[in-house]
Automatic annotation (TrEMBL):
One of its GO terms (molecular function) is aromatic amino acid transmembrane transporter activity. The keyword Transmembrane helix applies. InterPro entries: Amino_acid_transport_2, Trp/try_permease_CS, Trp_tyr_transpt. This is Tyrosine transporter TyrP.
Length: 124
C-alpha cells in the first residue's frame, strides 16, 4: 500500500468519524437507543451502497480523475456544479461542527488547567 493511499484512508475516516462523534450523543438523546441503532445500521448500509457505486464509476476512468471532472463527464455541467456545491457545503458543515466542538473542549480544558473561565464575547 502506498503512502498516499494510507493518507487518503485516514483523511476520509477522520472526517466521517470525527464530526459524527461530536454530534451523535446530542442527536440521539431524544429518540432512544433502539431507534438510534436502527438509524445507524440503515445509514451504514446507505453509505456502503453509495461508496460501492462510486467505486464502480471510478473503475472506468484514469486514476488521476477528480470528483468534479467525474461529475462533469457523467452528469454534465449542472452535475459538476451540484457536486462542487455539495462538497463545499459539506466542508463548511464539518468546519462548523469541529469549531463548535473544539471551542467547548478548549474552554473546559482552560478552565481545568488554569482555573480561568472563558465566556463568549458580547457584541458592542
Amino acid at each position: 500500500m502506498k503512502n498516499r493511499t494510507l493518507g487518503s484512508i485516514f483523511i476520509v475516516a477522520g472526517t466521517t468519524i470525527g464530526a459524527g462523534m461530536l454530534a451523535m450523543p446530542l442527536a440521539a438523546a431524544g429518540v432512544g437507543f433502539s431507534v438510534t441503532l436502527g438509524l445507524l445500521i440503515g445509514l451504514w448500509a446507505l453509505m456502503c451502497y453509495t461508496a460501492l457505486l462510486l467505486l464502480e464509476v471510478y473503475q472506468h476512468v484514469p486514476a488521476d480523475t477528480g470528483l468534479g471532472s467525474l461529475a462533469k463527464r457523467y452528469l454534465g455541467r449542472y452535475g459538476q456544479w451540484l457536486t462542487g456545491f455539495s462538497m463545499m457545503f459539506l466542508m463548511y458543515a464539518l468546519t462548523a461542527a469541529y469549531i463548535s466542538g473544539a471551542g467547548e473542549l478548549l474552554a473546559s480544558s482552560i478552565n481545568n488547567w488554569l482555573g480561568a473561565t472563558l465566556s463568549p464575547l458580547k457584541h458592542i
